[in-house]
């Protein structure tokens, strides 16, 4: 079964593709505008150079005044530097000189020379010939507006990415909150539905237990265990959605008790072993009914993976920083690497019948209610799997 939640990866991919298309379209369109504006600025500088050429080589008349006022002075955006044929600076326009050097001609000259190097990197200088055979050069670079426009799409993409990231986290939070409400509502309703028949079963059990007809009947003891088990299950569902009480419990004993109950209700061809690599009296903070539920769900999945035949070993070890690890290893068919990240998703199952909620619920109990961690420590196809519970 493919879980509905796995479709979110497709949605993410679609969103990424749309974002890339928008980004590519934005960059392409902006580059077209930049290209047109760059051509316009280049034409403006060429016109500026032609005006200089005319003023240098033409006699003084009213046309020179017109050229100076209407052509040369019209360039108030494109930075230009006029030099002689030896690249000695003659004049500059639209270049901001830092205030700390504005009164020092040598520093100004050095600053403009550095600007010329930047201009060379952007554009070839324009040649302005003199009548006597000498030349001037007009160096220029992109205007501030054009420079800003070049970086505009990238700034826009960063803003869009930040907005999308915030929206993603908000959406994920709201989705998790909705999922939590569904989990809690389902659990509370299940506990409520179990309450009435469970009370009736308990009453019938006490009635049968007091009857002389069933005195010393072995089945009565097993029936009592199942009734008590139903009480535990009801308590488990009641604890979902509320803050469970965690107590210091002997983790080896609690784990062994969970296995003892489970072993009598599954295939006898499955062998269990429970051991601790350190003191058997070590304690961990757990809620016993919920912790039992985790062990039960993991082991039942392991039994299904082994098809009712194999072994399950549970090893309790001490980690650093006061943490305890409970490693549950089976000899089943293992999990493919491509599926390891999916096993804890609600709805993921390899069985024909099943809701795919066992491992998802186990992870929620450990991660959310015990502030621990449930992971796949190791898995190899054809050899088995190890789940690790950290408390």
TrEMBL record:
Give the enzyme class. Answer: transferase
PROSITE patterns, alphabetized: HIS_KIN
Q: Does the keyword field hold Transmembrane?
A: yes
Which residue windows are coiled coil?
A: none
- What is the recorded name of this protein? histidine kinase
EC assignment: 2.7.13.3
Which regions span the lipid bilayer? 12-34, 151-171
Q: Which reaction does it catalyse?
A: ATP + protein L-histidine = ADP + protein N-phospho-L-histidine
Highest taxon above the source species: Bacteria
GO function terms (MF aspect): kinase activity
Report keywords, A-Z.
ATP-binding, Kinase, Membrane, Nucleotide-binding, Phosphoprotein, Transferase, Transmembrane, Transmembrane helix, Two-component regulatory system
Keyword set includes Cytoplasm: no
Q: Which Gene3D superfamilies match?
A: Histidine kinase-like ATPase, C-terminal domain
């Amino acid at each position: 079964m493919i879980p509905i939640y796995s479709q979110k990866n497709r949605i993410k991919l679609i969103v990424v593709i749309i974002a890339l298309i928008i980004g590519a379209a934005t960059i392409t369109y902006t580059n077209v505008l930049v290209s047109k504006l760059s051509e316009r600025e280049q034409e403006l500088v060429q016109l500026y150079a032609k005006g200089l050429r005319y003023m240098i080589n033409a006699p003084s008349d009213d046309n020179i005044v017109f050229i100076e006022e209407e052509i040369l002075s019209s360039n108030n955006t494109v930075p230009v530097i006029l030099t002689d044929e030896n690249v000695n600076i003659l004049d500059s326009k639209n270049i901001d000189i830092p205030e700390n050097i504005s009164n020092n001609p040598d520093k100004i000259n050095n600053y403009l020379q550095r600007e010329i190097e930047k201009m060379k990197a952007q554009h070839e200088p324009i040649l302005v010939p003199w009548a006597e055979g000498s030349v001037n050069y007009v160096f220029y670079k992109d205007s501030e507006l054009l420079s800003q426009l070049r970086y505009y799409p990238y700034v826009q993409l960063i803003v869009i990415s930040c907005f999308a990231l915030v929206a993603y986290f908000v959406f994920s939070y709201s989705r998790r909150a909705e999922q939590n409400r569904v989990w809690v509502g389902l659990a509370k309703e299940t506990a409520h539905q179990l309450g009435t028949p469970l009370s009736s079963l308990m009453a019938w059990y006490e009635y049968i237990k007091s009857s002389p007809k069933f005195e010393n009947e072995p089945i009565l003891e097993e029936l009592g265990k199942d009734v008590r088990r139903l009480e535990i299950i009801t308590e488990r569902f009641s604890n979902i959605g509320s803050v469970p009480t965690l107590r210091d419990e002997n983790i080896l004993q609690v784990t062994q008790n969970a296995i003892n109950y489970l072993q009598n209700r599954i295939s006898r061809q499955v062998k269990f072993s429970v051991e601790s690599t350190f003191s058997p009296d070590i304690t961990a903070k757990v809620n016993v009914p919920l912790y039992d539920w985790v062990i039960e769900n993991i082991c039942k999945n392991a039994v299904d993976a082994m098809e009712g035949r194999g072994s399950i070993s549970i090893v309790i070890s001490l980690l650093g920083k006061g943490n305890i690890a409970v490693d549950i290893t089976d000899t089943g068919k293992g999990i493919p690497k491509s599926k390891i990240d999916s096993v804890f998703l609600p709805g993921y199952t390899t069985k024909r019948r099943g809701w795919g909620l066992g491992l998802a619920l186990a992870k929620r109990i450990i991660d959310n209610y015990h502030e621990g961690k449930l992971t796949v420590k190791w898995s190899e196809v054809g050899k088995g799997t190890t789940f690790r519970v950290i408390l």
